[in-house]
Amino acid sequence: MQLRFGYVSMALSLWEASPSHALTYTNWKKLNEADRLEKLHSVTEQNLRNTIRILHYNIAHEIEVYRMSSSLIPLAAHPDVEWDFISPFKEYFIEIGRLVKKHGMRVSFHPGQFTLFTSSQKHVTENAIVDMTYHYNMLEAMGLHRDSTINIHIGGAYGNKEAALQRFDDNFPKLHQDIRMRTTLENDDRTYTAEETLKMCERQGTPFVFDYHHHWANSGDTEFEELLPRIFATWERTGMVPKFHLSSPKSDKMIRAHADYVDPDFAMPFIKALKAYGHSSDIMIEAKAKDKAAIKIVEDLAKVRGFKRIKGGTIEM
Fold first, then answer.
1. Per-residue pLDDT tens for 16-28?
2. CA distance 132 to 262
3. Among residues 205, 163, 169, 213, which one has the least CA distance to residue 188?
4. Is the CA virtual torsion 283, 172, 19, 214 positive or negative?
5. What are the pLDDT digits (tens) for 82-122?
6. SS3 state at 66
7. What pTM was computed for the model?
8. What is the rounded CA–CA span in Å between residue 229 and residue 270?
9. What SS3 class is residue 1?
10. Which end of the chain has the lower number of beta carbons within 10 A, N or C?
């Protein structure tokens, strides 16, 4: 079995390669119509160019799992800023998709904390649908909409977890079916445990992205090892190996914050559980050191008996 490791958004080893340059709505409003479009185009082009640079970096270092920035397109989901962010950059999107497919990479998106389907406010759900559609449209422009995923959390509890879960059940199906089929759910570190999130995934037919650090901080009453068969089962319809998230606490007091690197001792019970289960998996490293942290955990595991590094970002066990 193999474990492939990846990272989020920014390759810190590259100079000036942020894929998340922004244009705020406040600054956009200050510009005249022509300058608004020019600024939107220049920021978007910079982000897409840097994404391509990052993909070439990943290819060179054999890192095959990567989460793209949700901020590639400035103001794309803002209700007052409607602009065509696909047509002018068609060749960039096609090039991103070509690189991903040619080199067998796995990419994803992870919209922010305000993409929610548990709110009682109608506009929150409407905004979530807009944001999810924005992410899907980018994947479609890349030709990756059948092979990639968009990961979200269940959301808030608003003082009544049972009612919030019911609202998710009611609101999530309002998404277009094609987008729902590419959506994954992740347990969080405060509200919805792994078991609660898994139950939602099973009801909605949605793959489950298990976050080990979040489970450690918000474990509920169930050991994650008991959930592995059900977690893997949620991925069966996709034809993809399951994806997991891994980070470690920043300190004893800041237990939910992510450290710069992944502590091998913290991660090892999780890694050993995957090894014992015996099925290949992809692991997204959510450490602050980004690509450096992903490479470091692979190097650390390669020193352990029974673990062999076979690519820059892949361990065979």
1. 999 999 999 999 9
2. 30
3. 213
4. negative
5. 899 999 999 999 999 999 999 999 999 999 888 999 999 99
6. strand
7. 0.97
8. 14
9. coil
10. N
